[in-house]
Specification:
CATH topology of the largest domain: Rossmann fold
CATH superfamily of the largest domain: Flavodoxin domain
Mean pLDDT: 95
CATH architecture of the largest domain: 3-Layer(aba) Sandwich
Shape: globular
Strand content: 5-15%
CATH class of the largest domain: Alpha Beta
Number of strands: 6
Order of helices and strands: EHEHHEHHEHEEHHHH
Largest sheet: 6 strands, parallel
Amino acid sequence: MKVTAFVGSGRKKHTYNASEQFLKNLQSLGNIEYEIVMLSDYNLQTCKGCSLCLDKGEEFCPLKDDRDKLIEKIINSDGIIFASPNYSFQVSGLMKIFLDRLAFFFHRPSFFGKTFTSIVVQGIYGGKDIVKYFNFIGKALGFNVVKGSFITTLEPMTEKGQKKINDLIDKQSKKFYSKLIKKEYPTPSLFELMIFRMSRTMRKIMLNENFRDYTYFKKVGWFESDFYYPVKLNPLKKLIGKLFDIMATNMTKSR
């Protein structure tokens, strides 16, 4: 299996080392091939907000950079790690530019069955909120999410501090590996079901063949399906799903 870590740091130090340690732990658990992608080694231009990727399709993006090379690495991986230092209490600029270049996937999530986690490296404070952000991002892209972790690398590093990091990464890598080998398509929560059913119903009413979201949803059958992927919903969730459709219809028509 292939696991790729995308590192949003400009240097190969704490964030890189934590990612490498995580990946080597995975290798010790099973037959894992891994790659560490330093975003700083790639040409990523800043999103201009033109919305062409959302409306017409990602191939119409006017920026000519390495976005598609990086997306190809995600597609060809079974597991993904986003690793970022805590800069100004958020992900690094490199990581944010990368996430912005994936914007159309939040409209048309495509990474179902793949496993995702995150590693945030902080000096003192703020990593917990960044992990929550990454957890949300992973879900929105369609991944099976293993809760990320934040590690503190305040220098000079103590032996006790390093042991805490080692233990945390070891625990997280075992959870990741367990989910990775299962390749699950989990039953959606009520919140996930609501997001899918309401957004797809609103797209069906508001958009037409001129919009990529519409043609994509139609092509993959999302306008008729219970969820993004085949899943068996219990009778109650089936009923609630229909109620979400009705709510979205009423909300859209009342605009």
